[in-house]
Design goal:
globular, alpha/beta, seven-stranded parallel β-sheet, 220 residues, TIM Barrel
């Protein structure tokens, strides 16, 4: 998840490096930007993500790019739009203060990738029933990149949400040392901001997370 105010360098460079080292989803989360600037940044970040994916070779999985909250930007750069493949946005990630997944689906169409942020297991189940493709559940642990707004949910809540039947990503305080814990609790993956963007070497941090998620022992 991007936040250019935290990036140690140009956001596009950090994104490309992180994807080259194993990040497979990028969420463009720049809440201070209005429509035009956000659309332009989204194009640049999408290109950077795809450059990073190509550097892993032709057999690398395709990176997925979504934009936070702005269904209009996702529509402009997504399904049915006349944009270059490298500029394409796959969908939108919704927050508590926006439209629900069913409404976003009506706007963006059946092929769009739609996610949502949730903060309790019941919210996860409700968003699942509304047609989301994937969900974030947060904060599992105390966040790395911002002050916590409430108590951490912990692994039991993650396990309860992850039983909903679609991909639930653990968010909040995730790093290479605890990534396997959240997978064991049922998470399909992790969502991070500070663990990569605030690292002295974002590529190395992304690689460490990728290896932990893939079950590679440290030092190998």
């Amino acid at each position: 998840m991007t936040d250019r105010s935290l990036a140690r360098g140009a956001l596009e460079d950090v994104v490309s490096e992180a994807v080259a080292e194993g990040v497979d989803w990028v969420q463009i989360r720049e809440k201070d930007l209005t429509g035009g600037p956000l659309l332009e940044l989204s194009q640049r970040v999408a290109r950077a993500a795809r450059r990073g994916a190509l550097s892993r070779g032709p057999s690398a999985a395709r990176v997925r790019v979504v934009v936070n909250r702005r269904s209009d930007v996702a529509l402009a750069l997504g399904a049915g739009a006349e944009v270059l493949p490298e500029d394409r946005i796959d969908g939108v990630h919704l927050g508590f203060d926006g439209v629900n997944p069913a409404e976003a689906r009506r706007v963006l169409g059946p092929e769009a990738w739609i996610g949502a942020s949730c903060h309790t297991p019941p919210e996860v189940w409700a968003a699942c029933e509304a047609g989301a493709n994937y969900l974030h559940l947060a904060p599992i642990f105390s966040p790395n990149s911002k002050a916590a707004r409430g108590p951490s949910l912990g692994l039991p809540a993650l396990a309860a949400g992850a039983a909903c039947g679609i991909a639930v990503l653990a968010q909040g305080g995730i790093h290479a040392e605890n990534a396997r814990e959240v997978l064991a609790a049922g998470a399909a993956g992790v969502a991070v901001t500070g663990a990569i963007l605030m690292a002295a070497d974002p590529g190395k941090a992304a690689s460490a997370l990728r290896r932990a998620l893939d079950g590679v022992a440290p030092g190998r």
